[in-house]
Every structure is written in structure tokens, then in C-alpha cells.
Amino acid sequence: MTDDDIQLIHSPLTQTYSADGHTLQIEIYRGAGSLWILEVVDERGTSTVWDEQFETDTAALAAAFLAIEEEGVHHFVTTAQREADEAERGLTQAARPRAPGATPDILAPLSDEELDALDGILLDQDNDEGMTLDMLDGFLHALALGPETVPPSRWLPKVWGQGDGAMLPPVVDLDEANHLLGLVMRHFNSIVLGLEQEPPVLDPLWPIIPFDAGEFEDAEMWAYGFIEAVKPLFPEGVRHRWRPVLESLGDTK
Q1: Exposed end of the chain (fewer CB within 10 Å): N or C?
Q2: For residue 199, cis peptide bond before it (omega within 30 degrees of 0)
Q3: What is the residue-wise DSSP string for 99-147?
Q4: What is the DSSP letter of 200?
Q5: Distance between CA atoms of 148 and 61, rounded to whole angstroms?
Q6: What is the dihedral of CA 152, 221, 191, 229, to 10 degrees?
């Protein structure tokens, strides 16, 4: 049987992760009836595949975030490249499953229907500490623009107002967990990709309220979310590095 004969199932949690000048593609996939495989691919196409397989794709994604947070992106890339070079010279030999390219929809912006769904999910939370959609959008823009890379394991609990550090609010089942995480990470990925364009694409989400005399753009909660990302997640000593970011934002409007 060839690789082409193997039907791979891709998780909706497959996504990109950019930090320290590198972009990694987190691939999560499985064959029919098998456990989830975790693979991380760098810009050169060099992959690192976990020996461990996972019962859920959420567990696989958490393992990827944890490894990137503990090792750092640069170490992650250089180690994978060194092992690949050794394998090419015949010093090591390993047969590893290789996933095809990422599903394009994983990097696509949320549709209007999906944004409405995410808005409803955020509003329906029992926790008053959770974010609204416009607050979340400002929060994610700050993370994407920031001078420091913050792993999702640190900021996802704040999205849902989870004081216990949980990455997701209470959910009914695994499908709901995957759906929630997929919506948030896809929206974050679309912001990152927009800012990487030349010139950068900045398309913030906040309510536009019509009046007889015109329209009023209510960006208060968006700005609150932006500041929430800056204030608690970065040490006081590096906040001055945000000044150019905030000034550039002022020039865009």
C-alpha cells in the first residue's frame, strides 16, 4: 500500500504558529480507526513527528503548544533541521508518516456566519469574566502585533474568563471543544496573516451604530480587549516596546 492509498483525516485544529521570525505548521491527522498523529513542519518543509499518538486532537494540539513554549521556536526549528540533515547523510533512518499540505480552510478568515456563531457562544457564557467578540478581536490583534510571543496556553483561559487556567470553558463533548478552539484559533490566524501582508491588512471588528446624522463606531470594548492583552501578559519593563505599535495603530484610522 502506498501513501496515496492511505486516507488521512485532518483535524480542524491544524494551524500555523508564528514566533521569533519563524512560522511553524502544526499538523494533526489520523488514519481511519487510528489515534491522532502530531507533526510540526517548519518553513523549509522539515517535519518533527511525535512518537506518541493521541486519543484526541485537542490533546495533540496542547502537546504542540507545550513543546513550543518549553523549547522555543528557534530550538524547535534547528533541532528538526539537524536531525533531517543527519538522516539525509545516512546517520539515522526512520520511516515517518508525512501529511499532505494544510487544509486551506484552516487559514481562511471566519465567515460572517461563523463570526455570528462565535459571537453567540461568547455572549452565552455563564461566566461574566469572559470576552465579547469585539473585545476578543482587540485582544487577538494585540497578541499578533506584540513584541513578545505569548503561547495560546497562557491567553486562551482569559478569553473564556477561566480563572483556573483552563484553555476552554465547560463543554458538552469533544466535538464542542474542537469547534470552540477551532473558531478562536482560525480568527487569530487570519489576523496574523493579514498583518503579514504588504501593506499590512488591519480590519478590526467593532459595532457600527447608525444614527440619523451618520454612524458611530463603538470601539471601546475592542480597545479594552487590546489593553487587556498588553497589561497582564507582559512585564512592566517591556511595555515601552509597545509604543511604536500603538502609534502605528493610530496612523491607520
Answers
A1: N
A2: yes
A3: --SPPGGGGSPPPHHHHHHHHHHHHT-S-TTSPPHHHHHHHHHHHHH-S
A4: P
A5: 21
A6: -40
DSSP 242: G
Confirm if 18 and 192 have CB atoms less than 8 A apart: yes
How is residue 221 written as a grid cell? 470594548
In which element (H, E) is residue 67 found?
Answer: helix 57-71
As to burial, measured by CB atoms within 10 angstroms (0-12 exposed, 13-18 middle, 19+ buried), residue 235 is exposed
Q: Is 199 left (phi over 0), alpha (psi -120 to 50) or beta?
A: beta
Domain ranges of the chain: 3-105, 108-252
Full pLDDT tens readout for the chain, 253 residues: 344 444 567 787 888 887 777 788 888 888 777 888 888 887 777 778 888 888 888 888 888 888 887 777 777 677 655 655 554 444 333 333 333 333 335 557 888 999 999 999 998 887 778 899 999 999 999 988 877 767 777 788 889 887 777 777 887 776 787 788 888 888 888 888 888 788 888 889 998 888 878 888 888 999 999 988 887 545 554 445 555 555 555 444 4
Cell of 202: 488591519
Question: Are the CB atoms for 76 and 51 separated by under 8 Å?
Answer: no
Q: What is the CA radius of gyration of the chain?
A: 20
Nearest to 29 by CA among 46, 41, 17: 41
Cα 25-99-28 angle, rounded to 5 deg = 60
Question: What 3-state class would DSSP assign to 28?
Answer: strand
Are the CB atoms for 49 and 37 separated by under 8 Å? yes
